Amino acid sequence: MSLPLYALQQLINALSIGSLYALMAVGLAMVFGILRLINFAHGDMMMVAAYIAAFSLLAGIPLPLALAMMVIGTVLVTLVMERVAYRPIRTAPQVAALLTSFAVGQILENSALLASRFARKPEQIAFPGIDFLRGVVTIGAVTIPKVNVVSLALGIILLILLSLFVTRTTLGLSMRAAAEDLQAAQLMGIDTNRVIVTAFVIGAILASVAGLLYAVQAGTINPIMGFSPVLKAFIAAVIGGFGSISGAIVGGFALGLLEVLLTAIPGLGDILPAATTSPGVISFFKTYLPSSLTSYRDAFVFVILILLLLVRPGGILGTTDRDNTR
Amino acid sequence: MLQVEGIDVYYNKSQALQSVSLTVNDGELVTLIGSNGAGKSTTLRTISGLLRPKQGSITYNGQRVEALPPHEIVKLGIVHCPEGRRLFGHLTVTENLRLGAVSQHDRALNERTRGEVFDLFPRLKERANQSASTLSGGEQQMLAIGRALMAQPKLLLLDEPSLGLAPLLVESVFAIIRRIKARGVTILLVEQNAFQALEVADRGYVMETGRIILADSASALRANPQVEQAYLGGAV
Amino acid sequence: MAGTGKAQRNGTLIVLGALVIFLIGLNLSGSDFWQSIVINLGMYIILSVALNLSNGFTGVFSLGHIGFMALGAYISAILTLPLSQKALYLPHLPAWLGVTHFDLLVGAFPLGFLAATLIAGLVVTLVALIVGLVLMRLSGTFVSLATLGFLVIVRIVLINANDFTRGSRTFSNVTQYTDLWWVYAWLLITVYVVWRIKFSPYGRSMFAQREDGVAAQSVGIVIMRPRLLAFCVSAFFTAVVGALWAHYLTSFSPNAFYFDLAFSVITMMVVGGMGSVTGSIIGPILVTIISESMRRVEDATQLYGITQIVLAVLFILVIIFRPGGLLGDREINFAAIWTRLRPNRVEVEPKPQNVK
Q1: Which of A222, A228, C155, C339 pairs as cysteine with A124 (C-beta 3.0–4.6 A)?
Q2: Is the pTM of this model over 0.90?
């Protein structure tokens, strides 16, 4: 395959993955912005959505209804989670909240496990195929899985809707205010509980869409499927400047690009066309960036995360004023 | 009318206010003066609901408010313009004003009030679409006050409006305070600048280490040698 | 300090004596089932106490300590693997490791095991020193997240360093050196060291800095040292547990050293009380009782997953209603144990002098 085509295909892959990361990262960023809470159970939100969708479809429920149930179910679980586990500890130190989110995640994961048991299904369930998302799209010489195209399109649409909501509506404005200064927002007459719940709900909706798309792409679902995405989403949010919605979006796409780069470049030595590239370049890639480095990709991503935390905690877009004292 | 009776307020384990009582009658401008750390801001924050007293009560127009959340208290007409302005720096001037009006649902009234705020502070009108963090200190204070006015305050809690401002600006801030008072808004003013505060107020309370140590009319306080010595820089 | 010197010493001796008698009895009973529970409990206690030193004492909440445990496990296991096994299972080990002979026995005492454990501990402490120097600058949640990153990185490295670790395949055929005595000897050492640190000037300054988020930042080096010390010492003992664990289970893979284990240890520590050494003994005992009981229920009802849910709910309840844990940062009063058992001892009060 020629280099430009390879690059194009990888770019679209990157954008498609990036939009999933962006959807997840935005949910995390919204909650963090207002509450300074890192909700590690967010990944389990996407898992819950995938499970609800899977069980509904397997039970024969028609697609539109199943999707509606998926979104509503995820939102309900989020509301309960916020009310029971997160609201009581709002004044607790940040680490306590972080750990609580882990605990909530454990409850959700094991509940999914139990649910599988009741439904007499194995731990890893094959996600029922959705006709609309099957197959590939061909543009010229490039073939892209349909689900990637839909992920990208859906992601962009939802993110645009979110931006409109946040900039044009009063509730959205209140959320931005609360994220900047919660106490000042209270003095404006903003009911912070309502704002916080809204942030969680929006996050849940976005996570459920991401969960569905992820499940379709992966083909199977399991109780810990949300684990890796939430770590990635978190990194994306940090890259963009934790707490900033636009930052989370940029971070999500940046992470998608970074990941694909880290996968594509090491393997470059193997696919560079020998005819048109100098042997020196090819051997450089093969020696120093062998494809076996790909497996270290996630480690690199985390090293970058740590470096970012050290050097620029405000992220790429965020400000450097990390005033956490409220 | 606001009645604060015997409130004790704690920050974690340390006591910030001890048995603080004060009254603010409708139409009055009452000032709370004292040195840094005396508890003046804490008092305002307790009235506006950001803090809850361990003991004591706060009554506004006959209703007990000390246990209400801040957004409910704003609905009753008590608006707190906090210390340090606490503007939303990433948002524009207009957005800050819109946020001030979040508790008010009469669209037409909000438009009118915004117009009045811009009349009062023409500089803000010029910078309507700039982000609040780009304003100068004086402009930020004007925005903070304007934002508070958008909430249609019946009782305005002003916390250190002259903080960090040059003398000329301080003058204009107090001129504005007079104008607001003239419109019938009741004001409880916390100030480090005791001189100006006592000039504009009807009555005053002096606080020290979490307690009220003096309460009198503003003119009497101005003449009080204790006050003169401690807060007015000796003989005026 | 809990209680007066002599009373405390006597009270402690009584508790130790009871422990020794209990262990001897357990050993004699020959019950593998109970022995394994007590051995696992012992290792969890060391992990909790060590973690408490870093997280509970200094308020720097590390989520990645299990990474140290993993490293300790692998390093010690690679060292003690008999030469024949090394050739078979780790054929690509670099030459100098391939000939190390840590299965030495001196009489019946596995000196090689002790040496391997210590070496693993020291190497990991060095790693912790580097990691600590880099990460201690961060504050609050950020340091927690960075240590989480460390945990993930360790796992990825272990999975990929095939020549050393057999990657994600099971690392097995480790000799089972660990028994009751090894575990509890190390337990006593760990508890002693951490106790001494807690009640030393270093310890006091650690506790003082716990609360001081922003203020601590500005003091720089002064707060780095106690934090770094705590971090490294706790890493050492955590690595030791890794070695003990590896030589008890005799086979393991990188997946064992991940979030589930990390969260279990954190739950035990939080339940017992952050900042309390004895709390980190009580916590694991309580959690072990609960999870063992729940495991019976799971087996009976086939509802696998309930144990984790119950523990997670317990954790949330503790965080909401008793965030300090059972003991907060207090310790069990050993002096009280002594005075309880000797009620006849009457302190003779000097007669009050009449002051004219």
Answers
A1: A222
A2: no
